[in-house]
Design brief:
The complex is a heterotrimer of chains A (about 300), B (about 150) and C (about 350). Chain A contains 13 helices and no strands. Chain A has about 300 residues and is mostly helical. The mean pLDDT of chain A is about 85. Chain B has about 150 residues and is of the alpha/beta class. In chain B, a hairpin with a 1-residue loop joins strand 4 (about 65-70) and strand 5. Chain B is built from 3 helices and 7 strands; from the N terminus they run H-E-E-H-E-E-E-E-H-E. Classes of the chains: A mainly alpha (about 300), B alpha/beta (about 150), C alpha+beta (about 350).
């Protein structure tokens, strides 16, 4: 009985749904706020993401006549479920809901599911902007995913473990992977920006080009779920990078694990916000060039170094 | 400017140009409609006067007048009048591509036909416009549509 | 490869004004485009014939939402010429000051639109924040941020006092510093250059055949500027350079426009320093003697031409307006052939379209 309760707590509250939901909203707010301050604006109040979520949930849910209704309903749920499941395996300040040898690979697989769902969302909602946005998201996926995966094998090789918890504890004994593989961290960061479709790699949903990309035709509850899935994905992604490259909850000096973890997460979020402020959006062919001509060779080099 | 006038006079010995100075460095000369295209060709080919600022069309009450405003340092305007009976003139888009929109505008606003225009379609007016040519003296503006008032919308 | 037709406009996040494009695309390549304008056609030329010369000032100010002052300037100087009015020098100086402030305001606004469309929101925010300085100056001078209602037939409505001269100078220096910062970003930021260089290329032959004007022509190496070539107002008394560039792409146009801002700021300082004393306007009669006039001015986007014909009454017989955007619109289909969909936004914003101007 007690075991069941702990499991339920882990699934629904910490580090499961409730925790991810809260931090997703908090991260979105912080991100928007930081970007706004860097651009000389004020930015939204703290409850804005929550208000947006509630408002969208209450809005009318419309779809084009030709769209596949079943798929449109299932796809946001699939990506949300994939991200939530991935969240269970990524330790938060050392606490993971579940862990086994090889969970890094499962997490990477689960985190790439939303990208496919995103592409399909564009395809089944038939609008021209959706289809073009969907095609772009697939092309973008092929450009960032390979260097991202290669970069994340670095920490695994470095610490000799394919479990995220194992990588964290290994780093606590030696040093952060960041110091050994700075290049890998950079590649993973670029990959993460591409995965989260943040500026400057928000190519599939570039407003001035394809309106809102694959999500153009979505509205109401489905759009709210999509946004939630994206926000949670950025939380899980940041936590993943934190655990694999920045030594998880360990810090050079004494600090409670939770505080150290939060501090690092905020720093990483700040880095992402700064990146979106500093650069103009690339074109999809420029990204593909960058991905295959620069990032992949660098990732290979990095991998050779790591094995050696 | 004198050189231009001379060679135009050479090309059309029978025409009276009545060159007139109009404020802000502009010379106006009058040409018959059937000589206009040839005159534009001379201006572009011999004098490199390729900047056509715009074409003004106006209904003077006696005829439809077209004014081709050229510019290079100074202005030169070719003026031609079309009688209401034959509102047609050769297009100059084959010499100056950039005349296309000006001619289309005059087509819909004054009802002049430009022979050989590559895209004789409305430019500013709606596709289903049937109210006549808005810049003609005879144009009667459409009555204001009746206000729907504040009745509830279905 | 299958062809798709993408509608851009009349309502689209890319365009702030109604303009419709139907793009035929194959994959990410645009192969053909069809344009439709006229969504904001207000029949201003016809309306002008039904109103008096004085009422027309306020009507023509509304041809364009951004370069409102240049339209009344062109119109008023034409009517003044018909009337044979000698405008006091101080009035002309103030008219020119507003023209140059408006140019800065228009160019900064445009930079914001361009950077927004290539996903570079930071520069968009900065450009529009710095634009507030110009708007503040204009509000202080005329009471209006965008529509100034400054021009009268026979001069200007406003005057400027010692305090305003003293306060405007430092504000302009602040702005000059900000413009230099923006120029630094334009010249050095790699992602910006990657998106704008070799995009929306207009060769000098197209400038010639489409009769293009203004910064678009100057960025393609055509050295033309009415302020220098056919000076109006007090431009013959001011010292300024005409900025040109050889590249002919969107990046070159950005550079030209921003360097024009620098020149305009210089001119504003000269005007404030040299401002002669005296009245700012003379009284104009209601009726205008018969005659015709062709008035040209250099708007922020290039040559504006007005043809005004009077038949001796208090209403003009014809007012013809040609705005610079119309020339750029004609050449757009050339630029939109064989480009990436992502570049459509750059091409469209690169020529600085003002649809309300073009539709009239």
């Amino acid at each position: 009985m007690r075991e069941l309760l702990t499991d339920l707590w882990a699934l629904l509250v910490f580090p499961g749904f409730a925790f991810l939901f809260t931090s997703a909203l908090a991260f979105e707010w912080l991100d928007r706020r930081v970007i706004a301050r860097l651009q000389g604006r004020v930015g939204p109040p703290w409850y804005q993401p929550l208000a947006d979520f509630i408002k969208l949930m209450a809005k009318e849910d419309l779809l084009p006549t030709d769209a596949n209704r079943l798929a449109a309903a299932v796809l946001p749920l699939v990506s949300l479920a994939a991200v939530l499941t991935a969240g269970l395996y990524v330790p938060v300040a050392g606490n993971a809901a579940a862990s086994f040898e090889g969970d890094l690979i499962v997490v990477l697989f689960l985190l790439s599911l939303p990208a496919l769902a995103y592409f399909l969302a564009g395809w089944i909602s038939v609008g021209v902007y959706s289809v073009i946005g969907g095609n772009r998201s697939l092309l973008q996926y092929f450009s960032y995913e390979v260097p991202f995966l290669m970069a994340l094998t670095g920490p695994a090789i470095f610490s000799g473990s394919w479990s995220i918890a194992g990588i964290v504890s290994q780093q606590a004994q030696t040093t952060w992977t960041l110091f050994v593989q700075p290049l890998g961290f950079l590649l993973a960061l670029v990959g993460l920006i591409g995965k989260l479709k943040r500026d400057p790699l928000d190519i599939p949903k570039a407003k001035s080009e394809v309106i809102a990309g694959p999500l153009t035709e979505f509205s109401g509850r489905k759009l709210a779920l999509w946004h939630l899935a994206m926000d949670m994905q950025s939380v899980v992604g940041i936590f993943l990078l934190l655990n694999t490259f920045l030594g998880g909850y360990s810090l050079g000096f004494e600090l409670p694990a939770a505080a150290a973890f939060a501090l690092k997460a905020l720093a990483l979020l700040g880095l992402l916000s700064a990146a979106s402020v500093l650069y103009a959006r690339l074109r999809i062919d420029q990204l593909a060039n960058l991905g295959w001509r620069v990032l992949v060779p660098l990732a290979l080099l990095q991998l050779v170094f790591a094995i050696w | 400017m004198d050189a231009i006038l001379n060679s135009l006079q050479l090309a059309f010995p029978d025409d009276e140009f009545e060159p007139r100075h109009v404020p802000f460095d502009e010379t106006f000369i009058t040409l018959p409609a059937n000589h206009l295209h040839a005159a534009v060709e001379i201006l572009v080919a011999q004098f490199d006067l390729h900047h056509l600022s715009t074409i003004t069309g106006q209904d003077t009450g006696d005829a439809i007048e077209l004014l081709y405003h050229f510019w290079r340092g100074k202005g030169l305007t070719l003026r031609t009048a079309l009688p209401y009976a034959s509102l047609s003139i050769a297009t100059v888009t084959d010499v100056i591509v950039g005349a296309a929109f000006y001619e289309r505008e005059i087509m819909e606003m004054l009802g002049v036909t430009f022979e050989g225009h590559p895209e004789p379609k409305p430019l500013f007016l709606p596709d289903d416009w049937a109210g006549g040519e808005p810049l003609r003296k005879t144009f009667v503006p459409l009555a204001e549509p009746e206000s729907p008032g504040k009745e509830p919308v279905e | 490869m299958t062809r798709m037709t993408i509608p851009i406009g009349p309502q689209h996040p890319l365009l702030k004004e109604p303009l419709s494009f139907l793009l035929s695309v194959e994959g990410e390549r645009v192969v053909d485009s069809a344009m439709r304008i006229g969504y904001v056609h207000r029949g201003i030329e016809r309306l002008c014939q039904q109103r008096t010369y004085i009422q027309n000032i306020h009507l023509l100010e509304r041809v364009c939402g951004i370069c409102s002052h240049i339209h009344t300037t062109t119109y008023c100087q034409g009517v003044e010429m018909l009337l044979g009015l000698e405008v006091p020098l101080r009035g002309l100086y103030l008219r020119t000051l507003l023209c140059e402030l408006e140019r800065i305001h228009s160019h900064l606004l445009w930079l914001g639109v361009l950077t927004k469309n290539i996903g570079f929101d930071t520069i968009f925010m900065y450009a529009w924040r710095d634009r507030e300085i110009v708007l503040d100056i204009m509000e202080d001078l005329s009471g209006g941020r965008v529509s100034h209602a400054v021009n009268l037939i026979g001069g200007v409505r406003i005057d400027i006092d010692e305090r305003q001269v003293a306060e405007t100078g430092p504000q302009l220096y602040d702005l000059a510093r900000q413009v230099q910062k923006l120029l630094g970003v334009i010249e050095n930021e790699q992602t910006f250059k990657v998106r704008t260089q070799k995009v929306g290329f207009i060769p000098p032959e197209h400038v010639r055949s489409y009769c293009m004007v203004g910064p678009v022509a100057r960025a393609s190496g055509t050295d033309v500027d009415l302020r220098r070539d056919a000076p109006y107002a007090v431009y013959d008394r001011l010292d300024f350079n005409v900025v040109t560039h050889q590249d002919g792409d969107v990046w070159a146009r950005t550079l030209v426009r921003m360097q024009e801002c620098v020149e305009s700021l210089r001119m504003c300082h000269q005007i404030l320093d040299e401002l002669p004393a005296g009245p700012t306007s003379v009284r104009a009669p209601r009726k205008v003697p018969a005659g015709e006039v062709v008035s040209r001015c250099e708007a922020p986007r290039g040559e504006v031409i007005y043809y005004i014909r009077s038949d001796g009454t208090e209403r003009p017989a014809r007012v013809k307006v040609r705005t610079p955007t119309l020339t750029s619109l004609m050449a757009l289909h050339e630029q939109l052939r064989d480009v990436n969909i992502a570049d459509v936004s750059v091409v469209l914003s690169g020529v600085d379209l003002c649809i309300a101007c073009a539709d009239r």
